[in-house]
Amino acid sequence: GQSKVYDMNGLTVFSTEKGQIGDNKLDNAGYLSARSGVVASELTFRDSFSAFEQTIEDRNVFSSYVPIYGPGGDIEGVFEVYDDVTPLVEQLEQTQQTIIIGVAAILAGLYLILYLIVRRADGIIRQQYGELRENETALRQARDEAMAASQFKSKLLANVSHDMRTPLNAIMGYSEMLEEGVYGDISGSQRKATREILRSTGVLIEFISNLLDRAQLESGKVKLEMRPISPRDFVDEIQPQVAVLAMAKGLSFACEVADDLPDKILGDRYWLRQITLNLASNAVKFTEEGHVQLTVFRKDTQWGVQVTDSGQGIPAEAQERVFQAFERVSNGHVGSTQGVGLGLSIVNELTTLMGGQVQMESVVGEGSTFTVLLPCCWLRKKG
């Protein structure tokens, strides 16, 4: 450790590093605190640090400031003792990073196991239902068992997903604080690892949100709350979220609201938002270069939300399956991309619940267009 002594004007009158005698400390918060009679300590990051007549770079320095009292009890100066604690800080940061990565890996493993259990349970239900179709009595029994199993599955998904949100949000929050330097500066490799934690946690949170929506739909608990909404405000609310996803992949993203739309329509804002976000995020996910376009328009007695992308497209033989739960399509092969295939099934079921329909046009190698058409319920026409 090293030390310095300052007078009441902040001037360095003694230092174990002779070259620092005469430096002024008047603008330092720790010095000012000690000069007023309060002992203070601080941890600072320094681009360079003088130690025993040599200069070392990028160091974490811990300093303590103590008032110096004269014979009469008055403060006559400030004494500082400081030391290089870089190894300790790096060890703490590495330990914290390891813990966060470990917890994220455990949570990802738990969700993988849960996903496999759900897939297996869903397969068993389908198999049992098919085997008992020839016998009417057995069919009714199988149907009841399947419904009970489905309700149990939905309840399990809802409960587990809800309970997992809290630790995932905590991981997201602490990772964001690490990246922003709340706990001190981090190295480039640590920042890269933190960003990967944020990305992976975001995927898990999106997965949980879809599971909760799916559970509500299967349990029949979705109740539409039809209230006046502005199509333009609705698009403005969604645009930033999708734009961030598109920007991360180097895609262009544009929104358009038709001029002939009314100022207000009746709709369930939350579920309309889920429909649009699922379509738009799906488009970004399956588009490697080019653009994604969101359009809200009017068509006769209907209004619609349309998402167009320049992605890989969906082969004709797979198009009938994309709206089924747990079906995934990538490069013409079902089940070969990230995610669990819930987004489009949720869009289809919510649209049906609202009395609308989903249309799809897709060409392999050129892209896809998904259109949700809903019945019009105008409150006030524009103009």
Please explain how this structure is put together.
This protein is an alpha+beta fold. The chain is elongated. Mean pLDDT is 81; it is low at 331-341. It starts with a strand and ends with a strand. A hairpin with a 3-residue loop joins β13 (357-363) and β14 (367-375). The protein is 46% helix and 26% strand. It has 7 helices and 15 strands. α3 (136-179) runs antiparallel to α4 (188-219) and α4 runs parallel beside α7 (343-353). It has 3 domains: 2-84, Beta-Lactamase; 89-219, Up-down Bundle (Methane Monooxygenase Hydroxylase, Chain G, domain 1), CATH 1.20.58; 227-380, Heat Shock Protein 90 (2-Layer Sandwich), CATH 3.30.565.10. The strands form 4 sheets. It has a 5-stranded antiparallel β-sheet. The longest helix is centred in the first third of the chain and has 46 residues, at 86-131.
Question: Which characteristics define this entry?
Answer:
3 domains; Heat Shock Protein 90; alpha+beta; Beta-Lactamase; 383 residues; Methane Monooxygenase Hydroxylase, Chain G, domain 1; five-stranded antiparallel sheet; single chain; five-stranded mixed sheet; elongated
Give me the secondary-structure topology.
Elements: E1 2-6, E2 12-15, H1 29-35, E3 40-51, E4 54-69, E5 75-84, H2 86-131, H3 136-179, H4 188-219, E6 227-229, H5 231-248, E7 252-257, E8 264-267, H6 269-285, E9 291-299, E10 302-309, E11 329-330, E12 333-334, H7 343-353, E13 357-363, E14 367-375, E15 378-380
Parallel strand pairs: 7-9
Antiparallel strand pairs: 1-2, 1-5, 3-4, 4-5, 6-8, 8-15, 9-10, 10-14, 11-12, 13-14
Helix pairs in contact: 2-3, 2-4, 3-4, 4-7, 5-6, 6-7
